[in-house]
Amino acid sequence: MASGWGNHFDSPLKNENNVGRSDRFSETYSAPLTESNIGVELVMTTIKVIEVMSESTESWEAAAQSGVSDVCKSVNGVNSVWVKDQSAVVENGRITKYRVKLKISFTVER
After folding, report:
1. Please, is 110 exposed, middle or buried when counting C-beta atoms within 10 Å of its C-beta (0-12, 13-18, 19+)?
2. What DSSP assignment string belongs to 7-48?
3. Within a 13 Å sphere around the CA of 28, how many CA atoms are in the beta-carbon half?
4. pTM
5. Do 104 and 50 form a contact (C-beta atoms < 8 A)?
6. Which tens digit of pLDDT belongs to each residue from 19-71?
7. pLDDT of 32
8. Selection from 70, 73, 72, 80 nearest residue 49 by Cα
9. 3 state SS of 70
10. Which stretch of DSSP H or E encloses residue 69?
11. Which helix (H) or strand (E) holds 101?
12. Which CATH class is domain 8-107?
């Protein structure tokens, strides 16, 4: 993505305490106006964040990959994922299902 965001924690989708916002589904970031960009058309990017749940019988990593893969089948521009929560189902003393809640962000196409 052209904006240079390294990962979820570097994105401008944070409040003043550097905590990711979950109270809004999308936000727009604009660069500050300086002498170097006066008269230059600024490209505005809108990022949407959705929450999905996924599970796997193999691992939490496989559950996360499954969730991302499923979202990518119907959404273009996926650029990051954050594992919000993870849990497991235990049967007879063994983990049988690994579950994750994911925050997946993608660029909104114009």
Report:
1. exposed
2. SGGGSS-B-TTS-B--S-SEEEE-PPP-GGGTTSPPPPEEEE
3. 9
4. 0.60
5. yes
6. 444 444 444 445 565 666 566 566 678 899 999 999 999 999 999 999 999 99
7. 60
8. 80
9. helix
10. helix 60-72
11. strand 94-107
12. alpha beta
